[in-house]
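seq:
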Amino acid sequence: MHRLIAFALAILCALPSFAQENTFAAPSSAAIGPSLDQYVRTLAQSVIPVYRDDDRARYLGSLFRLQSAAGQYQASRESIDALRKLRGDDTSQPPLFLQYEIYARAKEAQASRALSFENAWREAFSQRFAELANAAALRAEFGFTGGVPRMRSELESALTKAHGQTRVSLADALQLVRAWQVYSAYSEFQPLFRSALAADDARRYDVERDRLVRTPDGAQISTLVVRPRNAATLPTLFSFTIYANDDWSWGDAKAAAAHGYAGVVSYTRGKGRSPDPIIPFDHDGADATAVIDWIAAQPWSDGRVGMFGGSYVGFTQWAALKHMPKALKAIAPSATVAPGIDVPREGGVFLNFMYPWPFYVTNNRSLDDDTYGQQARWSKLNRDWYASGRAYRDLPIIDGSPNPLFRSWLHHPRYDRYWQSLIPQGKAFANIDIPVLATTGYFDGGQIGALHYLREHLRHRPNANHTFVIGPYEHFTMQTGVPPVVQGYQVDPVARVDLQALRLAWFDHVLKGAPKPELLKDRINWQVMGTNRWRHAPTIEAMSPKKERFFLTPGATSVTNILSRQPAPRKSSKQRVDFRDRSGADWKAAETVRYNTLDPRAGLVYASEPFERDAELSGEFSGQLNFTMNKRDVDVALTVYELNARGEYLELAWWIQRASYGKDRSVRQLLRPGVPHLLAIKDTRLLGRKFDAGSRIVVTLGVINQPDRQLNLGSGKDPSDETIRDAGAPLVITWRGDSFLDLPLREASTPKQ
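struct:
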């Protein structure tokens, strides 16, 4: 008897799965239009009675779509509400599927009150959004955006699949209904969204556009102010940017206002409505200070200003700190530029990706996206220059367009007073006593700039309130959001941090006394790739308790060089580079950090033995290169990789350095041919990667000889003036076997030798 009951219960439990096997009539047409609308409505009505799913959340998530497609709008709203209660979402967040709730309300009003859909939707939107706090309303906006063409494409795919069958399965029916429901809803309400949102914004915020703030030297700075309506005096979050895009600026200022600040965005002089000449870098520190002083004097300001922003906008924050404005109480730079340190050159080597940038920011009062986006033009320029053998200074002539800003940069090949005047130097860092939150990424070209500010700040003020965050991010994703995959690397889930939200939470801590964000446990906070965890330390040096020394030891052949524990001073690896050979003019840098093979142009390859146990590299690497050569200068490139047991490479960090600036970036000291030289590997990028057992550390060491960077032919002349006639005999450089790297290795066994 008990077995019979158990059997009956098993049959009953299986009924939902059995019901899933229902099939339905396929659509008679693959066209999107009224006939499809009627088909989907009928299909949804047929599916609702038989659809079951043991996962309650998934069931409700599909049910509300079926009900909406079937025209059962009140039932659809009730299912959405049940799903919200089931999830127990934070009430400070926007309600789940608010866009579909408002759509359903509008459809109900349209039918019951004979309203047009437009009027019904605007009314429903206004009522529901008015119930949301500013921050929740801001986050809710995302749910109303999206690409309708993409939604149509997904509907067409689902329709084509279903139309090709005689009957459709329940799974295919659900997919088709969902695609139709999304497309049809967004097609109706999205054209109404922007104007409805503008009306809601006008209710929430006081806005002052196109304000011109005058600087002490008479320039005018175009400024946007957004404040919560009817608010008392507030602290201000301020961004000072050369990237004059009114949509971006509105978004930044409004986000600050939505979180209880006065949001201010100013464009650098000459941008936006400013009538002045456009001059990047030179005046930004003084001009930002003038705006900060203006903000502090406004009746809506409580006298405290925090600055934020990424890339160039990170630089403007440090530029302002050179002037130490009294009202500036905190900065939060991201992917930060340090002019003369990381752009337009790094390690003394000019980088071609910066060549088009002056056109982008100086061609007009906003941004010249058309010119900047001419990738074929810039690739051709790199190729033509490299293949021609002409001087680097001739790039504007080869391009056929004047580039005065680029030419002016080339007049300052060393870190001279021009570059030094732009940001704090030396002891000036000791006076910077305000909190700093700096964020950067392992794959961010601007990491060197962010680290420069950190190192200098702590060097001159060891107890500085300078918090540093680094993860598997690249320059642009840090500012737009972290996707699941960054440059081919699968990001650990814990690393997918909302960096903008982190910044706001930090400002709340600094300016409003809120708790410090949990992630910011110490001064240095880094995500160890491959561990799905964050680590924390008080200094860069403390990221790893010790460093392991690996010598660059020659192998039996040129491809079997070794990262060894023992030096081999009597052995050497020889490298030969003929700068007259320009056959690599079509070379292009990879767009990924994962490789199956290494680029042969990277130079000599050195590999450790496989690790016997899991290991971790966390922190900065350093070292020393011992070499002789037959030239007076050389540009060195060194890259660190993981090589896993499957034979896949992951690029972890790189370092480039013009040898003549190795001792002092402000003074060029040419080398003597045929004499041993020491080049310190210092001020490097950070590492943060777990190595599985069986993986190896791989290092490439080479000489820069590629069309996307300035060439240094070693004649002793300014590399900007060297032509192929200065190349002379091939460069021959001999790397001694006592050259070494000190790597921040932790939790590792000693590799076999």
